[in-house]
Structures are given as C-alpha cells and as structure tokens.
Design a protein that fits this description.
heterodimer, A: alpha/beta, 5-stranded parallel β-sheet, 4-stranded parallel β-sheet, 28 helices, 51% helix, elongated, B: alpha/beta, Rossmann fold, 6-stranded parallel β-sheet, 15 strands, 43% helix, 15% strand, globular
Chain lengths: 557, 460
Amino acid sequence: MSSLSATIQDVLNEPGCAKNANKSEVGRKKGCTKQLQPGSAAGGCAFDGAKIALQPFTDVAHVVHGPIACEGNSWDNRGAASSGASIWRTGFTTDMNETDLVFGGEKRLYKAIRETINKYNPAAVFVYQTCVPAMIGDDINAVCKAAAQKFGKPVIPVNSPGFVGPKNLGNKLAGEALLEHVIGTEEPDHTTPYDINLIGEYNLSGELWQVKPLFDELGIRILSCISGDGKYREVASSHRARAAMMVCSRAMINVARKMEERYGIPFFEGSFYGIQDSSESLREIARLLVERGAPEDLIEHTEAVIAREEARAWATIESYKPRFAGKRALLITGGVKSWSVLAALQEAGLELVGTSVKKSTKEDKERIKELMGHDAHMIEDMTPREMYKMLKDAKADIMLSGGKSQFVALKAAMPWLDINQERHHAYMGYVGMVKLVEEIDKALFNPIWEQLRRPPPWDGTVDNRKIKTIAQVDAHAVEIVVDPALAETTRRARKICFCKAVDLGTIEDAIRSHGLISVEAVRQHTDAVGGCCKRRIEDILAAIPASLPPAMLQAAE
Amino acid sequence: MAIVTTPEKACAVNPLKMSQPIGAAFAFLGLRGAMPLLHGSQGCTSFGLTLFVRHFREAVPLQTTAMSEVATVLGGYENVEKAILNIYNRTKPEIIGICSTGVTETNGDDVDAYIKLICQKHPQLAKFPLVYVSTPDFKDGFQNGWEKTVTRIVEVLVEAPAIEAERDAARVNVLPGCHLTPGDLDELRTILEDFGLKPLFLPDLAGSLDGHIPDEFTPTTIGGIGVDEVASMGRAGWTIAIGAQMRRAAEAMQAKTGVPFRLFERLCGLIPNDEFVAFLSEISGRSVPSKYRRQRGQLADAMLDAHFHIGGRRLAIGAEPDLLFDVASMLQEMGAQVTAAVSTTQSPVLERVKANEVLIGDLEDLEELAKARACDLLITHSHGRQAAARLNIPFYRAGFPMFDRIGAGHQRSVGYRGTRDLIFDIANLVIADREENQQPTPDTWRSPRPAYRSRPPQLY
C-alpha cells in the first residue's frame, strides 16, 4: 500500500494543476476535492474514475478484481464508442467470495487473467484493484507481473481502490498506471510531423468522430487518443507524438505534464465544445506542430478550414437565435465543462441564469466571469430542492446537467438536456455545436411542456362538486329520455314550496281540479306557503291556461 | 427435474448477478419517506444509484457513509454517526435503512452496536426507525439482499398485536418478491380490491417508483408503505407472499403476529393464477367477479393464438431464481423448451425448473449454452443485449436492470391480464424475427444436406 499512497501524494501534488498550486502545503496534502460528507455525498469512487478513464481502450480486456458489486453493478454502462474491437464492453470480474477473502484472492486473479487471455486473446489485460482485495492485502502488481511473464502479454495493474478518494483521483491514478506501465513500451510503425495525442478524450457517443474528419483533412494524425476509441498499441507508442492536446478535462493533467517532462511533448488545454473553442484548439494544434517542425503551410491550411466551418455553423445557428431570444438556461455540471458549454450556449443566444462551479478551478471561474460578466450567477453547491424551486418558479426555461439531476427538472415539468457522460448525442466540434442547438430547440419547444403544466380540469374541490352534480343530473336525464312515465313523475316531483315540501304535481292537480287562478287560491287548497315560492306558483299559473284543465273546459261549455 | 450446477471458473465474464446491498436498498425504496444508506465507500452507492436511475428513470434516494481508506482502517463508527445525523437533519426522512457492503463487512464493523450507541448519544434518534441489514457484497446476490431486508423490516417494524386486538379479516399483507415491478403491484392491488380486500404491500414500489409526479420535491422516497402502516400489519387476516424468496419474511410475520400466510411461488401463467384467484375467493368469501372470468378467457385465447409461435422454441433464460422459475415455467407450459437456464444464486425453486440443468453462472455461460444448443429465444436483463446481437435471436428483456428501454417499471407479468400481455409480447418478438431473419430462400434447404438430428423434446 505504501507505493499506492506515494502515488496518491504525487498525484495530489500536481504542479500542472492551477487549483493545487494555489493551495498551502497542508491543503495540498488533503487532496483535490472537498472532504466527503457521510450521508450527503454523491459521485463515484476512485475505482469508478479509473475505469471511466481507461475502459474506452477498445482492444483491452478490463478485469476487475473484487466482489460482484464493483463490476456486476456497473459494467457496460458507458457511452463511449468503438470503431472496431468490442472486448472492452465485456465485463470481467473475479467475483470474490468469502473463501477468497479468507485465503486471499491472488490465485483466483491469476487464473482469471489466464482464462481471459485463453478465451478472448486481448491486446492487453488491465487489472483493476478494488477496496476488498486491497484490504486483505492482495498484491495485484505481483500477480500482473507474473502473469505478463507467463503469458507473454501486457498485464497492467491499475491501483485505484474505491476508498482512496473520489472519481477524479481515480482518473489520475489511471493515468499513473499508463505512465508507469504502458506509455513508451512500444514504438509506432512510422511517425509523421503531424502526429498528435489527445489526452482525456473518451469518445462519448462517438463525438471524437465529429472532429476527426477535420484532422484528416488537415493531414493531422491522432497517434493516440487517451482513451476514446484507443488501442493498446497506440497508447504504448504515444510517446512519439509531436504535440498533445488535453481535451477539456483536468482529469489526466498528470499524463500530459509528465509526457511533456519525459518525452518533450508540448501540450495545451483545449476544448472542442463551442465554435470559438474548436477554432482556437485547431489553431493551437497547428501552431504547436509547426513549432515542432511541421511545414508552415499547415497554419494557413488550418485557418482556411476554420473559416469555412465557422461560416457554415454560424449560418445554421443564426436561424435559431430568434427562437432562443429571452430564453434562460441553468447549467449544472462539473469543472471545465462549465465554461466550455457556457460559451457554446451564449453563441446560440441563450441567457444564462446560473452555472455551477462546484468542481471548477479558480481559473475556470475567472473564465466564467469573463463570459458572463461580473454579475455572473455562480452556484457553489445547489441542493436538488433548490434546483427544483428555481425551475418551478420559472427562473429558468431549461436545465442542462448530468443524468443524476435530470428528474429535478423533469418532475418540475421543465425542459432538460443531458450534457454528461451518459448522454446519447455527440456535441463536439462545429457539427456538434449545431447539434446541441438543435437539441435545445427540440427540448424547449416540445408541445408536451404546456400540456403537463396545465392542471387537470377536474382537480380542485369546488370544481369537483360541480362536476359531480352535473354528472348526477346527466345520469338522471338519460333515464328520463328512456322512460316517459319516469319523466312525468320526475317533473311532478319538483319541489315548489321548500318550507312545507309541496311539489309541483300537488299544485298542478289543485289548480286543475279547482280551476284556481291566483297564488292566494293555491294557498288555500294546498299546504304551499306562497312566501318565497310565490314567484314559482305564479309561473305555474301562467303556464296552465295553455292547456286548460278539464274542469274549466266543462265550465266554459 | 433440473440439476443445479456451478461451473468451475475463476473469472466471471459478463456478470448476470448484482450485489446484495443494492437489492437491500431496493427493498427500502418501497417504504415512504425512506433513505437507504449503504455503509461503504461512495462508489458502492454511486454504482447502485446509476443502475436504479437508468432502470426506472426516476430520481432515486440512496446515500453513502463515504468510507475512506483511513476510516476503513479505524472503523466506521464516526461515518455511520455522521451519515445518520446528516440525513436526519437535511432530508427529514421517516426511516433510514442501512446496508453493509464488502468493505465494511471485511473490516468487521458492528453496525448494530454502532446504532445503539448513536441512539444513546443522540436522544432525538431514540424513537427514530433505523433498520440495519448485513449484506456483504462477496456473498449472495440482489434477490438475497431484498429477502433479508424485508424479513428484517418485519422483525423490527411490525408490532405484535395486543391480545384483545381484533383482526380485520379484509386486510391482507402482501410481501412481493423483488422480481415484481410497480406495474405488477398495481395489478395485484386491483385484483385484491376487486375481491373487497384491503391490501398493504411491503415493500410497495408501486407507491414510490411508478413514475408519478409529486406536488413537492422530496429528497427521500416519494411514496410507498409508511412506517405506521408496516407497524399495523399484525392486524391483517392473511399474508400473501409472492416468490419463494419471501418465505422467510412471511414466516417472520407469522412468528411475530400470528398472521397466517400463503406463499405463491408463481403468479405468471394460467394455473398459478387460477390458484391465486381461488384463494382470494376463499378468504374474501366472495365469488370471483365476472371481470376475471373474462380475463381468464382472454388469457386462454392468447395461449391458443401464441402457442403456434412459442411452442417448440428453445429458450435461453438468465435471471435471478424466482423470476427464472416464474417465466421459464410459464413458457414451458406454452410449449417452449427451457434449453439453457442460468441463475445467480442457489434457491430451492431452481431444481423444479422443467429443464435438464440450471447453471449458477454468468451471461458468458448463457451465451455459450445458447449457441451450442441452438436456442432461438433469449430472455434476460438488459446486459444480455451484446449476447443477443451476437446470437442474432429474438431477445426479450426481463428483470433488473433494464436500462436500454423505457417503461421497465410498468412491464407486467402477474395475473391473467399480465400473463396475457407477456405472452403477446414474446410471441410478437418471435413473429418479427421470423419476418426479418428467417425468410426462406431457394437455398435454405439445399446445402449442406440437412442433418436429421432432431429429437422429440423431453416431456415433463
């Protein structure tokens, strides 16, 4: 464990990390995220982070050494895309049981590696350490070394048990595993002056392929992408690249910096989210490559491509701007994504009411301020309840966030768009930006929102009573239509004098048989009071002569 | 009857099984105002949470004690204490359900004792319901976690009725297995109510994970059975347990309150539902409503229409024991052959599956068997999608998790109506597959010369 804790210290001491550099000696030792609060923590563990960072290597078998929870609960749940091999999507785990815990799991792990190689013949095997075997002292480094010698295949230990820290630390520990055991162990078939590495790009939903055509057009070769759609051999020989781009994520800054240190590969941090960011990144790559000896016309060529792509994307987005006028968005996401997506949304004409800066560095925050102006509504930590209230009060028209908070928006009947790793759409580069705008438009203007916000017409107590009464009346009406005798009985049963409960039939009969013509006379012949029901009796008297009662007719004759 | 075997291999490939603590957390999710808490590193919770969210497409409350490496070495008392207080103060739950994990079982945290100490130290928690279940990751599976938790809830929260207390014969406790969906529970509720019975479900996922939109945002579960309702279960006339996994909980209920129980191992298929409806008629003293005569007729007709398509199918099924027993048996009764069956953990029902063998294994085993034995219908949870693509056979998703299709919570298989719909769905998959992949060509029967290897299927 001592070597693992040394690695963690080393990773936490990352000089390339701006946030870290600003901290005191003590603060640095504490780690790069806030101390976890039991009972109110969210997010993955270090093992999760390591797996996220390395699983996109497509021709590698990823063997998880631990009980069923670590792999059984999580396998095949990432949206990365592969252009070839599919073994990375296969779940391998030692599924440790009680016996392994008592006697140690090393033998089982060794056998598991053997089985995996015999059955699937992967380019390499990555072995992930988890909490339980780390606790009982399984030495996966030794097992991997022995297995690699025995089977003549790279077997790489990834020492990142969940309890050492959060996901982000796991990303970095995965990077350390690559630096220690993989990068620089093989040589590429050939090199060109246009070779670059992309670091921290996972090809989610195949978004790397939204940018790759531009690289291809410019003659720039992605020697290795760490790790989206990556191959073991590519990353093993990635030390021969001329330049590197750290794609929109601080997760693997240690890899970028140490490769610069060890192999002299200059890197910059860039993003392909948003039009301006994409253009800047392309420019920077061209500049670095030319600096490292690529022909100078690359810059000119790049500018031409940028101008063409920008013009095309702007023209499309322009048509959405009027639709987005006055629409407000709430952006809840981590780290660098905040400012890169922010820029993109502003390009589309959306007004930003807030953005989370929970995981952002000081630098990130500066950039957000630059983009949003000084009254930037930066949200340090927002509880789901607060988010819900904000949406319910219609302070925002759409929320963009990761999958876990989507229901906060959806249950408030508010449009929501996934911009995290589980998403199904690719948003990178110029085409991706247009796609994002299209998706926001689709979400905002879907006709369901209006329907869902409308309360049901039968809701509310007063209305309920009214509806009930109407229903009773209606039900009765149906019977009356069917049965004329019932209709007559019902008609005659209508109460005229409420005080003495005298019905219409009694009054009519009295009028008919005695030929009454005044309210006074009706009062004498029936129980009717003739007070509050005076008007109703007058109406009856007025109606009767139309069909003269038999007594009157006889009298007339 | 089936022989249950466990293959000798060191590496599980494409796991079918999920871990015990999240099965336990799942059970707590069926309680109102609940917050399940996994005592382990934060990844244990985050993976489970992702599974639930992707399956139900709902906000799911699930918390962690966020054990760090140091805390693991020193023991997790402080983390459990902080977590409970934090949840109690911030989310105001009605109950906290605590499940251990591999990490905290390996270092041997005595959570029962921790809870006692915490309640002594913080008097506001003295009467607050805290239920702890021991669920190590390295033992058993999802279904076992559910089973243990429901049993524990019965033991801790159900009150033994006072001697003079009257039982309400119309009240029925229903203990559903974890293989039933919220849609299944709602169907059962309707059936029971149609007999004039008043059912209480423990756990009641239909109240919490059926996808309704609550008026207010709550960080805990948005419905389900209340702690007070659980406490009153001892006054019911009967307990109905569904799935063999619920036997323990039903026995615990009987031991504590004297409420008799009847276990229905299956509720999918004609005969199991006949028995169920007959039982309801018996305990309610009412004749079967005409609605169910009609539904029974509809199921019978569906069986007639579908047996042409399901009959003779060679089924490969991977599921937890109770689901496997239920669905495989129903299809076997429709004329399918259970050719490959893989389950996660031991259970007495597996021996009674009408197949030659049942394997305790993973989806790699299932895929290999399905291929070797030329299966032409695959049923398992969503993780079977890769195998289905490679095998190129019709694939029906059943069980947990179902993350790549929507409506998982409302997929029904119980009752006459649920069985009818399930039969239609599966038969339609088979029909679509025939249209898309099995159209004959002039060469279908030409070469290589068809080998007459076929044998009549085994009769049970």
